[in-house]
């Protein structure tokens, strides 16, 4: 029996010569109070389809049919690139072998019920189509046709597809942008983070060809915000989620440095801070969070930072090199910044109100293990205290005074004490906001106002995993899914959110992966060695596993995420079996039965 794999790449809808459908795609100009504003992006079309050239195709023999059992995956080399060959339920499939998000090897991921889940950050892809089904990341996998002939396995693939290992889904374009009133749009998206961008892309992928406008207070196009604290010297163009050409090609307008001051839901008008007004038909609010600031004396002085933009992160790295850094707050941001600066700064001190970092999220034992890792890398902790004063010399930060009486030398201070939802502009709108400022939405990301949706860090929504309890999950992956669900329901698909939360943090070359929602956990079952930072921790509540975290135990978190996504329940008594079967033997049978 012979297996052949042939690349199937959807044709791009634009040639080199073709520009935006509104003529030459000239910049849109809005006139507000007589001032001309150019809001459209530079017009350069995406390169033409590279897959028409027969010389670009490669064919190679890779294996025999009997080499793979059901439920197995294998990377196969074609000489100029690799593909992922999969056998499930007696059928062969082939897709790209790397996750388009950060390049994780999918052969080390989890195969279950027609999809493969990334071992690093939990993105999921259909093995039949290559389409992305859960996030993070924006692109899908290239899909390769499989043919069975005799006893040899051949792959016929485009060299370009093998090298890029990603595929952007087919998208519609705006039919006639030049005919629109520039002060009105069919869909207005407030916020240009992951939720806003995925919403816009999903609308185009689903064939929506009307006008889409995104607006953001930021000066940049949507970028990979988690890298602000994980890779602080990254420049905006290095972490952009999409290039400028992408937005032009698919007629997604982005208004940068534009702040919405109010929303009139009866008239369907958004009022901007500078007085400009825009009508909308459908609205997505995806404004995210705003970082909390210190309340002590000296908080406004120079060299005190919240990390909100690439410029903030870059500036901190520059100022901190060979200097004394004080970080206030052992949050994810605070800890990641401390880890990043530890080798660059002269000293790094971290001030935290709790006695162990991450105690509420990861539990005390895991928190202490992480704290020890930081101490071994020259980070000094000052726990169970707060900042009482920031002192200056010649207008610049010089010392941080703690309530304990300790005085710390400081050339730079980074504040990471949490965030609040950026929803203050909605207080008089009639949109339902809870006591903490979060926008309340249902499973379809709809607010109480027809036609108004909300997504991302600023919302509370029913989490299926926790019996539809209303929760706030400020994770990058979740923001992607919120945006997709909102877009589908703008188009009346009636799609409900059911994804499993998934997050990661990276510090000193170690990644902590986490899936589920462990809020209110009452016990932690740990397998492995905390001191060696090779372990998996199961968070339980009333004997049920509600979340899992790991270091150096891949792909256990992705495996548990698949169990939870399937609606299965893992009991505390099943933890030993889960670890043994999934990690030591690789047996995936428990996905469909064990622990349920």
From TrEMBL:
Domain (Rieske) ranges: 60-155
Keyword Cell membrane: no
Signal peptide per UniProt: none
Key words, A-Z: 2Fe-2S, Apoptosis, Electron transport, FAD, Flavoprotein, Iron, Iron-sulfur, Metal-binding, Mitochondrion, Oxidoreductase, Transport
Gene Ontology CC: one annotated term: mitochondrion
Keyword S-adenosyl-L-methionine in annotation: no
SUPFAM superfamilies the record matches: FAD/NAD(P)-binding domain (SSF51905), FAD/NAD-linked reductases, dimerisation (C-terminal) domain (SSF55424), ISP domain (SSF50022)
Primary location class: mitochondrion
Single Gene Ontology BP annotation: execution phase of apoptosis
Gene3D superfamilies xrefs: 3.30.390.30, FAD/NAD(P)-binding domain (3.50.50.60), Rieske [2Fe-2S] iron-sulphur domain (2.102.10.10)
CDD domains according to UniProt: Rieske_AIFL_N (cd03478)
Cell compartments where the protein resides: Mitochondrion
A Pfam family of this chain: Rieske
GO molecular function, one term: 2 iron, 2 sulfur cluster binding
Superkingdom in the source lineage: Eukaryota
Stated family: Belongs to the FAD-dependent oxidoreductase family.
Its biological purpose: Induces apoptosis through a caspase dependent pathway. Reduces mitochondrial membrane potential.
Protein name per the record: Apoptosis-inducing factor 3
Protein species of origin: Erythrocercus mccallii
Lineage: Eukaryota, Metazoa, Chordata, Craniata, Vertebrata
